[in-house]
Amino acid sequence: MATHDAPALDVDAIREDFPILERKIGGDVTTPGPDEGDDTPLYYLDNAATSHTPKQVVEAMTEYYYQYNSNVHRGIHSLSQEASVAYEEAHDRAGEFIGTDKREEVVFTKNTTEAFNLIAYTWGLSQLEAGQNIVTTQMEHHASLVSWQQLCEKQGAEVRYVEIDDDGRLDMEDLRANVDDDTAMVSAVHVSNTLGTVNPVSEITDIAHEHGALSFIDGAQAVPTRPVDVKAIDADFYAFSGHKMLGPTGIGVLYGKEHLLEELPPFLVGGSMIRRVKFEGTTWEDLPWKFEAGTPPIAEAVGLTAAIDYLEDIGMEAVQRHEEKLAAYAYDRLSAFEDIEIYGPKTDRGGLVSFNLGGVHAHDLSSILDDHGVAVRAGDHCTQPLHDILDIPASTRASFYLYNTEAEIDELIDGVDTARKLFA
Ligand code: PMP
Q1: For 372, which of 159, 179, 193, 296 is 20 to 30 Å away at the CA?
Q2: Could you tell me the domains of the chain?
Q3: Is 382 an annotated catalytic residue?
C-alpha cells in the first residue's frame, strides 16, 4: 500500500492505550513518578529518544513475569519451555517485521549501539585490514560513528565521512567518490535522528556491493516509523532498538545475512552461546544464539513481540503517513518564525524537526518548553560531528509518534513563542 493511501490513525483511541500520556508534570522531579505539585499536562515530543509503551506491551511483560517467568533453553520444566517458545517467537516476529523469515539472521542485543559494537568487534577485528577503509557519513549517530572510528584506529584502517549538502541530504556523488576497491564497509543511517533525512539505503548498499564492500544500515529511527524490508534493501547488517518502537528498554536487534554471521567469531562468550566446552577448547552454538551470551532479555523479547503486534495492527504505512503529516505541520509552523533555523530537508523527512531559536541556547529553550509541559530534546543528539559541521553547539529536537497530535505541536509553538519574547 502506498503511504498516501494508508488510513488516517485514530489517535484518540491510540492514546487510550498509553496511560503515561495522561500524566501531569511540574512538581518534584527528584523522586520518580507523579506528585502533588504536578499540574501541567504533558506534551511528549521526545520520541526519537524513547517512545512510550502501550498497555498491551506492559501487560504481555506482566503476564510473562506472573505466569511463565523462567530461564530459556536450559530447562526441561514447563515454565522454561513456555519461556523458550516466547523468546524464539520474538526472534521470528522481529525478523518478519523487517522482512526476513530466518531466525538465524535475528540477533538480540541490548540496543542499536551494541549491534554496532558487535559487528565492529567481530567482523572488524577479524576481517578489516590495515589500508582498507570504512565509508560512513557526516550525519551518523555516535553509536555507529564511534564504533567505526575506534575500529579503524585499532586496525590501521581509514574512516571516510560522506558529506551532506546544504539541505542536509547525503551527497551521493561524494559517496560514490569515497567508495573504492579498498572499502570494506559502507555504513549509513536510514533516517537521521537529527536532520530527519531519509537516506537512499538501497542505492547506498548497491554502491557498496559494486566494490565488494558490505553495508550496515542504522535503522534506529526507521524501523519504528516506516515499513522496512532488509531483503529489498539488500543490507548485509541492519540494527534497531525496541525502546523507540513502543517496546521496552534493554532489547535491540542486529539483523545480519546468515552466511556473514556464520563466519564471524562470537562477541561475548560464556553460557548459552556454546555447544560444547572442554578444557582444551570450546565450540559455538548455532545462530543466532552464538551471539546471545548469558541469560538474554526474555521479558523484553516478550514485550518486543507485543510492540510489533501493536504496530502491525495499525499498519506501518499508516504510522509513516501520520509521522510525515506531523513533521510537515511542525516544519511549517516553525518556519513561520523568522528567527528560527531548521535543520534538514523540507520534504521527504522522518517524523522529527531539529531547530534553533536565534540567540537562545537549546537548553534554555527546552527548559522553558518543559515549563509548558512540552518534552523535547536539547543537545547534540549524539551527532556532535554533524553539529560541528552545522556550526552550532546544540539544537532542539521535537520528534513525533503515532499518539501525537497537531494540537501538541501548537503547544510547542506557544512555548517557543514565549521563549522568543522572554529572550527578545
Ligand atoms: N542510531 C540512531 C539513528 C539513533 O537515533 C539512536 C538513538 N538515539 C541510536 C543509533 C542509538 O540507539 P540506542 O541508544 O538504543 O542504542
Answers
A1: 193
A2: 11-54+313-423 (3.90.1150.10), 57-312 (3.40.640.10)
A3: yes
